[in-house]
User: Fold these one by one.
Assistant:
Number 1:
Amino acid sequence: MNPPFPPDWKCPRRVGFLFPHACLRATPLGCPDCQNGQIEDPYAMRSDRFGYSRFDYYTDDYFLDLGSVYDPGVPDTAPIDFSEADGTDLVTPGNEFETDMTES
Amino acid sequence: MWLIYALGGGWGHLTRAIALARIAQRGRPLRILTNSPYAGIAVERDLDVVALDTRAGVVKEIAECAPECLIVDTFPRGIGGELISTPKARATVLVHRDINPRYVESARLREIVAAQYDLVLVPGAGEGSQLGNPPPAITTDPWLVRCAGELSHSAPIEGGSVLVCASGKPEELKWYGTVIAELLRLDCPAPVRCAAAECPPDCPKECWVRYWPAIDLVASAAVVIGGAGYNTVAECLALGVPLVARPWPRMYDRQELRAQRAAKCGHVIVVNDPREAARAAIAEIGRPPRHPPPYSNGAIEAVARIEALFRSQCAHRIDARSAPDGKPCGKERNPAQQERDHDEDERV
């Protein structure tokens, strides 16, 4: 929605982390959740989550190492044709993932 | 029977599973599989909890149970990859807590979830984001082991305490012990209590409480010092209790991200240094208490969503039987698509 806003306008979005609640701001301008109304549904976008890179455990060296042990043999652009029978063949877990049953 | 796969370290997977099980077991037999070392402490009356510690044990247990619904917490392949070789249940549901996207990519979890799961449940807005659609991902409020009206008023700590929740890995106990020592050194004006399975180093025995579930204690606390795991953050946000959060590194969970996001929306202070944590907690004492509205327990909606999945599967089968050519009547939709369409209809 673009300005000007009706005097009784209230933001209809639901915002907040874990427990979303009605926003009810009188204007999206300056809103930290929808960024001035540019993001219709912050949680649908979620680019911040996928692009997040602050892992305490992982350094660039680690990912280089991971790349050397994991080769799915399938180009990234391959269509999704996974079946249950393919499950064990698709993944060659590195030394890190799926080895420690006590991780979380 | 519904079977909940809740393997993974610490308290988090088991506590979330119990939150769901408390609601779900009212309508059916239910069992929880766990490898949490705290399974003996996290006791809930009438719950069937099976402790396992091997991949083979998990596969055998699932095969023997032959559950009509398998609910898998966090790890679509199983924490050791063992679920790939288990038979598919009539309905398979993923509980999508946040998970390391590097693992999502390297293990091709999206493809696995699309092929093997009928429903993805996200226990809290913004918690899970990388899996689902298809199958549909449905976000509920966080799942808590106590509904708002169930909190114990006989929790063994004084009201207005500084509560240190020392969960996590054994080697992290030292950090919490340092926090407690610093709180005492600074003459903290409120009682200091530490909830932990084992008493941390440097924590006086009289401060230590061995109690589950922590949410009962959180409800009585003036401020909580803890990690930034799912349950600690969700419980503090639900109850409006300030949280001084020390995000710990995990292989799969992104505590740092959860803490930073919670800090934007709730009263969460993110720290790393134990002395900083003690000072931040003391600064919170004496502030006017917050009175958030009673929270909604998302486990209730989660159970309803799973039940709706079964209903849609039944309707799908009836459609298929009634069609002259044996194919589903009308628009051919799988149960997951039906559920999504139903949600869209409801919104309209």
Note: The helical segments of chain A are 42-45, 47-50, 60-69, 87-90.
Number 2:
Amino acid sequence: MTTTAERRPVVPSWPREKLLMGLSLREYLRSLATPFNAVAGLILLIGLPVIAYRFIFGLGAVTNLSQANPWGIWIGFDVLAGVALAAGGYVLAGTVYLFGLKEYRPVVRPAILTGFLGYFFVVVGLLVDLGQPWRLPYPIVFSYGVTSVMFEVAWCVLLYFTVLSLEFSPTVFEWLGWEKARRWASRITIGLVVSGVVLSILHQSSLGALFLMAPTKIHPLWYSPFIPLYFFVSSIIAGLSMVIVETGLSHRIFQDQLRGQAHADIGAITLGLGKAASVVLFSYFFMKLLGIADGGNWKLLNTPYGYWFLVELLGFILLPCFLFAHGARERSVKLVRAAAAMTVVGVVVNRLNISVIAFNWAGPERYVPSWMELTVTLTIVTLGLLTFRWIVNRMPVLREHPARRGAH
Amino acid sequence: MKVNRRAFLKMVGATSSAALMGGPAKARAGRRAPRSGETLAMLIDTTRCIGCRSCEMACNKANGLPTPERLGQPSVFDARRATRPDAFTVVNRYADPKNGRKPAFVKSQCMHCVEPACASACPVAALEKTPEGPVVYNAERCMGCRYCMVACPFGIPKYEYEKAVPYVRKCSFCFGRVRQGQLPACASACPMKAITVGKRGELLEIAKTRIYQTPGRYVRHIYGEHEAGGTGVMYLSAVPFAQLGFPADLGTESHAQLTSASLAAVPFILTLGPPFLLAIHAFAKDRAEAAQQGSKERGGAS
């Protein structure tokens, strides 16, 4: 960026350096004309009016939700899968700052950014789904349903979002050049990381505990008293896998951000994370078996729902577990990335299974999302990706701030 | 060392705020409703019901809902109907296998559980078990998360999906009327005395008396006596309840308690989590420092 500014005889200004990445407004706008942006623009062009339509005409006009199926993909994907996939923030922060595994430091910032944006857009998704979104703060400030797991989730998510904002703030301060604020924010790191891990353990598991209330509606293979444990453990898996996938993609997309950084570093980090994911997946696999045994549900495996359960259990848990282990042993970064991508899909499948597919499995009414529901979900994901790119292109997320290079 | 002390203070802060969060939960548990036998309840004798749907008519009138569909037309019974945002009670017809000519009619509405799952699930306490017995909905609190609909084992809370500002709708046991000493609209409209209103304990006695005194008329089961921890609306029937569309898989434990173990773990994780994590941190830090020192010493010796 600075080199561009030096080459051209233009006076560097704050908005130009900080917002337009050192380009003039015309150059910047021209640089936006890419195929990716065209697709993203098209999605937003359709999706944003659909969101407006939903608020004017109500949930019924846009969704296929029904009296029997009150939760669809806006909860199953946007909220449940979203929170799980945003778990990289607490997993990596805990690994580096609490367990002291400093070699993973280069991926902490992108993981925290993913967490921060993940939760932000989870809340956006929730606002679209809530019947009266303007009452979102009610559990915090107005009316306390203290017997509700949802109440606990609301508090934990609010507090954890605050923690994530503070954890990400040093990056913003470096970008703005506010050295004093950055130093202050860095000083509370350990406290933030500890709160972040504790709050994550609580709400990741509690999102699963929500479904304990529906023993007669969820298929017995997915309903188990261990759901909270499953949600927590699989959030670790999702967090690790997302960081692996994201690191792989970032290093292809944001190459100019990473100039001067050793790629070997990222390879070793990917292999290390893959090894960890393999171990956690292995224990998750046995926990799932324990759930079947606990419910006495072995016979149900030989039913259509059982086959689908086996797809999740063998195809999305056991198989990537072996692929991770094999990839880590053979030092194949590619294989580890493939296993991570598979695991990410697997966690999404699991959340959709519990909330949508195995929910009301015996009922006469099946829920299938409408095209508008899918569009809104796609729109929110697109907004998340665009925001992520906007920040990474400007703030020291992937690269180190020049002034701080080698300071650790 | 300095960092550790600061971290410790933070941990104390987290712990005390956790204790504060646990506070209201305890206070609420302390405010117990009167024993379930004393609460207001309803006994529905399906063997007396003739399917006239006067209850539906009265209910809709009392709640300002539109007139029930196809009133007076037997064809309404051809398809199974569920309660709706604009119909808090509906009557369905079931064939009686013992007596082909005489079908059974079943009125359904909110069961007003002794420990309602909906109220336990509601994050803003919009759904509430009143000390009097009825389970009521405070619309001004509801944020529309629809968790009550997920939690209710009877599928009773219904949502106004078609509205831009939607609410949950369901039977309130005519709580407003009841507080003025009147009967719920459905009960006062029933021409067959199929609906009896009274204290739950007394209704159970009446139900058992009917079963004992008219052998053969009823199955020996009062639906709602124990289902899902007991319900405020209870039923008598001539045929097994599973044949009348009643959920048979609810068990006898209160569904409101299904998440209590999870919630009980929260204070422990909040209080024990931080010191545990800080201990790991201190241990990892010490080890890193020792390793650094060790390598320095070795470097100096060689």
Note: Strands of chain B lie at 40-45, 90-94, 104-108, 127-129, 135-137, 158-159, 168-169, 195-199, 233-236.
